[in-house]
Amino acid sequence: DPQLGCVVIDESVSPIATERFKRLARSPCTVNSKSSRVASPTAKTGKARRSINYGPDRPEIEKLVAMEGSEKPRMKVVIPNADSTMSFRSPPDDWATRMIKNICERNWKTVANAVFQYEDLREELTLALSKQLAREMAEYIHSGSMLKCSAPTELSSFSNRKLVHEVRVFCPFWFASITGAANVHLSTAEIFEDSINPLASVISTIARLRNQRMSAFAKRVSTVLVHTGAKVDDFTRLNRMGICTSHKQVIRDQVEMSNNHDSKALVWKQAIEEKKGTQFLIEELQTVESVDVQPLLMCPKLL
Fold first, then answer.
1. What pTM value is reported for the model?
2. Residue 55: helix, strand or coil by DSSP?
3. Cα–Cα distances in Å, from 159 out to 24, 167, 196, 222?
4. 3-state secondary structure of 24
5. What is the per-residue pLDDT across 95-120, written as a single tens digit (0 to 9) for each?
6. Exposed/middle/buried for 114, CB within 10 Å: 0-12, 13-18, 19+?
7. Contacts of 141 (CB under 8 A, 6+ apart)
8. Residue 75 pLDDT > 80, yes or no?
9. Can you tell me whether residue 246 is helix, strand or coil?
């Protein structure tokens, strides 16, 4: 009976049917339970998620997240401190933002060009470049530079091209400063070739100001002035400008060079004599060998 919640079994039916009706009676699907209201699930209220980070920098992070879009900075720099805390800094302007971005992306050429455009860094850059140039020059003047050549044979083989190449290798910052001031581009071969002599003059003048012994170029210029009939006053003026040596020094150098004016001929003569002596030695050895062999030929039994 649906109202009583039970199942009526008719005994006149077969035992199999009766057993089946009993099983159906015990089945929960045939029992009508009382209707009851099922409680609907409670609506989920918005709750803040629990963050994993509980460090002292959490308030700063929450502050950044809670800021409005118009107030958010474009970049934040996180600086780790020694006490395991984090400091947050914002770039002061767009230039600093671009600089940090290019550094992170390793755009070193852009960074190097942008550094010189920042006014606050110009004074510091000037001091840093000055120290670097002084360091390069100190190492260069204490090295075995060709500007220290003083022997006549060394001065005769002195070359401005070799001097410029030497400074380009050993003093890259100084060479870049000189070529930049002279507007000489290394990529243009013709302009660079025409600028070798002026560059050598500048290099020699500055190096001689630091060390008076580096006067090979000045001695070469002095030799040219002597053969062109320059006066003592001309030597004095040019010596004060650092272009040539003094007149007395020029005379001493010329006397020393005159004593060795035939040095190349003497070297050539010595080479010929050594070669001739070697030939004489070979001929003498051949003569001795022929003398020692003749008795042996006369006594074939000894052979």
1. 0.55
2. coil
3. 119, 13, 10, 15
4. helix
5. 888 888 888 888 888 888 888 887 77
6. middle
7. 207, 210, 211, 214
8. no
9. coil
Q: Which helix (H) or strand (E) holds 80?
A: strand 77-80
How far CA 26 is from CA of 1, 13, 23, 186, 228, in Å, comes to 14, 18, 5, 104, 137
**CB atoms near residue 253 (< 10 Å):** 19
Q: Is the pLDDT of residue 8 over 50?
A: no
Two tokens, residue 98? 């671009």
Helices assigned H by DSSP within 27-85: 58-66
- How far apart are the C-alpha atoms of 190 and 187, rounded to whole Å? 9
Burial class (CB in 10 A: 0-12, 13-18, 19+), 60: middle
CB 102, CB 111: distance < 8 Å: yes
86, 78 Cβ separation under 8 angstroms: yes
Q: Are 64 and 72 a contacting pair, CB within 8 Å? A: yes
Q: What is the pLDDT of residues 196-227, one digit of tens each?
A: 999 999 999 899 888 888 888 888 888 888 88
Average pLDDT taken over every residue of the chain: 75
How many residues are listed for the chain in this entry?
303
Q: What would you report as the CA-atom Rg of the chain, rounded to the nearest whole angstrom?
A: 50
Whole-angstrom distance, CA of residue 53 vs CA of residue 186: 56
Cα separation, 187 vs 60, in Å, equals 53
Contact criterion met (CB below 8 Å) for 296 and 302: yes
By the 8 A CB rule, do 37 and 10 touch? no
* Strands 77-80 vs 86-89: parallel, antiparallel or unpaired: antiparallel
